User: What shape does this take?
Amino acid sequence: MNKTVLGNTGIEVTKLCFGALPLGPLQKNLSVEEGAEIIAYALKRGVNFIDTAQMYGTYPHIKAALEKVDFLPVIATKSTAETYESMGKAVNEALEQMGLDHIDIFHLHAARVDTDVFDKREGALRCLLDYKKKGKIKAIGISTHNVKVVDLAAEKEEIDVVFALINKIGRGIINGTAKDMEEAMEHCRKNGKGIYLMKVLGGGTMIDDYDDCMEYAMSLPGDYSIAVGMISKEEVDYNVRYFNGERNLEGIITIKNRKIVKVSQVMCKSCGTCIDACHSDAISFDENEKAYIDPSKCIQCGYCIAACPEFSIRVV
Ligand code: SF4
Ligand code: SF4
Assistant: This one.
């Protein structure tokens, strides 16, 4: 499979990155063994890059997958930690739970934050720099949906890698359009930042338009790696074949059968936490003051699922 180097980091990754979010407890909730089988299958089929997060709950699946293969892929993870101490805990948790002696890329998990992120997370960033000095982290990144944060990251010396949200219709992008995000990414690229892409299929919501979505992402200047969430060997096969240059592939990948993110009307306590957590403006209160998710805006990121204190939001 074609590879690309992430900016000035020297880290070489496959153009297809295994997105670990959907198989974990926030979405499909596969068992550790089931999830490990699928990740290991992707690695054996040539993928060398896994993206996960502290929030995704998939470290055990990745650890079990690594035991099934004879090489160490590039692993990126992220944490929403704000302080030095909490980021230190997050790094150690990632190292321990995945059984690693270093993490290739550790991001500030900053999906919907604003441009004050580097001030607000000054402690967390300092912690990542210290771990980088110790060799426990190879590169520091930021993962974000916000055009202005991507643009700002281009000028931040501490940031090596940017994990940016982009898709052809701009679904889920904050503070701008797809075109604006393209320009911010170009700013990063010119400054030597490594970039890889998230949500090019709108979190699965644009799967019926798979070819056009991928063509758009692959045509961007920069030869970017693309993270794709996968929850079955069938999906791995489909994506691997596509990224290996095959076209007009037969078969419907199972992501098309994924269901929608929905709120249990019985369990919802109307606290509004999910509304704040949703960066796609997809949640509002219905006439009964219960949270309602508009499927046309939802990108199935799962953040509301993690945020709900009543566990009343599920992929159903
Ligand atoms: S409704 Fe939930 S899953 Fe959908 S975009 Fe908003 S936070 Fe993400
Ligand atoms: S966070 Fe959960 S309980 Fe609160 S409004 Fe949303 S769905 Fe209801």
Residues 208 and 256 are 7 Å apart (CA to CA). The first strand starts at residue 3 and ends at 5.
